[in-house]
Structures are given as structure tokens and as C-alpha cells.
Amino acid sequence: MPAAIRDVASYLPPGSLTNADLAREFPDWGVEKIARKTGIASRRIAAEGECSSDLAVAAGRALFARGACRPEDVDFLLLCTQSPDYALPTTACLVQDRLGLPTTAGALDFNLGCSGYVYGLGLAKGLVETGQARHVLLITAETYSKFLAPDDKTVRTIFGDAAAATLVSASDEDDDRAAPAIGPFVYGTDGRGAEKLIVRAGGMRQPARDGGAGDFLFMDGPEIFAFTIAAVPALVRQMLATAHLEPADVDLFVFHQANRYMLDHLRDACDIPPEKFPLCLEDTGNTVSATIPIALERAREAGALRPGMRVMLVGFGVGYSWGATMVRWTAP
Amino acid sequence: MTKADFLKKLETILEADAGSLTGTESLRDLDGWDSLAVMSTLAMLDKHFGVKVPAERIHQCRTPDDLAALAGEQVTG
User: Fold this and answer.
1) ipTM of this predicted complex?
2) Which of A19, A85, A110, A306 has a C-alpha 20 to 30 A away from that of B10?
3) What is the DSSP letter of A226?
């Protein structure tokens, strides 16, 4: 039974950090120039004690409120986060209970950043199409703000917190079209980039936070940028070749919303017309694995994403890890 | 691309006055030579010369002339 995206919904925490807030905090710093380059005007920030599971549960409830399915219908929960509530147990187990998913459901976390949504769709498709699940709830939930050093202006302008919930279900439609609703997939990994975007503390190599730089997210912005320049246009070409598509066959290209400057360059390098390339980060910032589903949700609301459209999803970042897939939009 | 055009592009990146660069300046001492400028230079090398280099290669450059050398013989004069 082919897997298809049934619906998507997101949740943003109420707290915010605007450029004016940053300008007040760093009066000697050209916030406006950075804002112009990143395309970000404000970000949503989880409150103290507001964790990934809280955002995940809110996104899940928003999805159920739309009526695509009931909590009791879900038989697998995939939760993507790099900022879990605890070292253990798995955040997905907490979310299973709080969302009222059946105890017969499988649930697991996977730890990926900006590529996570594409990988999650790949895992969900595998579960559905091998008959292990009928309704997979894929949630990407991240509170990167908790990793950010208060005085690190660069990362604080970029990252915001969010969660998104996507329902991937076995499709009942009698579908004679050649293109699958999700797939094919292209993946890539290069662990040589591990040191370029890293939080050193909190794992077993450095279990305790000691007040040093390792407690916080380190990002080598220029190296990350160089990586995306090298990897992403090649990824898009490989995706088109794997799916036997020409660029003109794709109705919408939804990239991970890293920052505007990077996206403008990648769009140009990939020769994608602006009207097929949604930018969606002005009021959210870079929400890591939630950017792609939020962009899908917003594009749907704006009428730019409609049933039947062929969409390329492209994720890339921390790891380094990257992936792309094709989606035939089947959700309302 | 001529070296003069290359320097013009760099002046735009640095938001410096037109004609202010000769190529031998110390990048470190230039206003505006920050991580955003490094990224803009990476983008410029990619877009105009098809040259993709790690950011480390940019950091190793001391002058605009060193940056131009990354594009090899594509920058003339």
C-alpha cells in the first residue's frame, strides 16, 4: 500500500525574539544588516521549562484538530529532535502518552537536524509500505534556543523553536499514476563536517555542562555555507535524475529554510525561478527540522501548494547530513 | 574577468568605496571583512567562476589578490 502525506500542522511557542530585542541587547551591532541578509525579523523562543515534548504535543494536537485522523488511529510515532527532554527515556514515549496514542503503537526518536524531515518521510514510507504501520505520525520538534550562548549574536539571529506534525498514511486511492506520492529518495552524509556545527556537552564524551563554550552550539557559518554550495546543487541534480524529472516538471521546491542569503544563492545556483521557491522564515527563523513542514503548511495556506502538485523537498545541515525527496501533494 | 572587475565585486561585498581597493591591502584590516563577507566571497567565487572552496581557503588569504588567485587564470590583468 503506497504511503502518502495526509496532513501537516505546526506549533510555534508564544515567546518571541525580535530584531528590535536583539538591537537593544547588542546596541553596538548592526542588527539591520544581519536581518537583511538572513531574512529573519523575529523568532519564536520556547520558555524556560517548555521542552521539545511540549512543542511536539501541541503540534500533534493541531494536526488532530484538523481531522485527518484520531489519536487512536496512529500506530507509529517518529519523533525527530536533537534537543530531547531527557537523555532517556525517548521523547517519543512521553509524547505517545500525552497525545493519547494507543499503547500498541511503536514510537522512537531519531536525532537529525536540518535534514531530519526528509529522513523522517523516508522512515515513514518504509514502515507503511512494508505493512508495519498504517498511520505514521512524524513529528519534528526542536528547542535549539536552549543550546545558544546568550552572547552569541550570530546564532541567536538565526535559530527559532518550533514543532511540526505530519501524518503519513497508507493510501487507499486506486492510483494508476506513475509517480509515487512520496519518493524516490536521495541521501547523503559526511561526518567530516561534525565539528562545524556541534554542541559538545550533554553527551557521554562531555556529560556535564561546565560553563565553558562546549555547553553551547558552535557554528562555523562560513564552512557550513561552503558545504551547502558544494552539496545542495549536486543533490538537486541527483534528485531530478533519480526521479527522471526535468526541473520544469517540479511545481515547487521546498528547501530547508536556513537563512535567506544562503537560499538566494542556492536558488540561483540551481536555476529555480523565485515563484517556485517559497521563502518562509521571516517570523520563525531557522527552526531546524521543522522548517520544511512549516513551509509546506504556509504554502498551502497561501494557495501556492495545491493537491496534485509535484514538490521537491531538500534538507541539509548538521552532521553533515543531507537528503531530498519528491512528494506528490495529496493532503487537502 | 579582469582584476579590476574582481576588485569591484569585492568592494561591493565590503560596502567599500568604488576604486578604493588595489589588491594588496590586508583583508584583516579592512572594515567589513567579517564572516558575512567571507560567505559573500564564497558565493561570488561559485557564481562567477564555478569555484567551490572550503571557507578555510578564504581564511588563509591575506589580500584581495590572494582571493583573486583562487579563481586561477579566470581573473586576468
Assistant:
1) 0.92
2) A19
3) H
What single-letter DSSP state applies at residue A175? -
Q: H-helix or E-strand containing A202? A: none
Size of interface A-B (CB pairs under 8 A): 41
pTM comes to 0.95
- Spatial contact of A310 and A181, defined as CB atoms under 8 Å apart: no
CA dihedral A152→A157→A163→A169, nearest 10 degrees, is: -120
Cβ neighbourhood burial of A67 (10 Å; 0-12, 13-18, 19+): exposed
Nearest to A135 by CA among A91, A95, A165, A179: A165
List the pLDDT tens digit at each of the 332 positions of chain A.
Answer: 899 999 999 999 999 999 999 999 998 888 887 888 899 999 999 999 999 999 999 999 999 999 989 999 999 999 999 999 999 999 999 999 999 999 999 999 999 999 999 999 999 999 999 999 999 999 999 999 999 999 999 999 999 999 999 999 998 765 545 567 999 999 999 999 999 999 999 999 999 888 889 999 999 999 999 999 999 999 999 999 999 999 999 999 999 999 999 999 999 999 999 999 999 999 999 999 999 999 999 999 999 999 999 999 999 999 999 999 999 998 77
Set of chain A residues whose Cβ sits within 8 Å of the Cβ of B42: 222, 225-226, 229
Of B43, B54, B59, the CB nearest to A265: B43
Nearest CA in chain B to A268: B47
Catalytic annotation present for A114: yes
Cβ of A225 and B36 within 8 Å? Answer: no
Asked if B55 lies within 8 A of A37 by C-beta distance, the reply is no
Looking at residue A47, what DSSP letter applies? P
Residues of chain A neighbouring B39 (CB-CB closer than 8 A) = 221-222, 225, 261-262
B-interface mutation test, from A265, A268, A320, most B Cβ less than 10 A away: A265
| Whether A256 is catalytic | yes
**CB-based contact A274:A268 (threshold 8 Å):** no
8 A C-beta contact, residue A140 and residue A290: yes
Q: Which residue among the candidates A51, A80, A114, A270 is catalytic per the annotation? A: A114
| Nearest one of A142, A170, A178, A167 to A318, comparing CA atoms | A142
Residue B35: list chain A partners with CB under 8 A: 154, 221-222
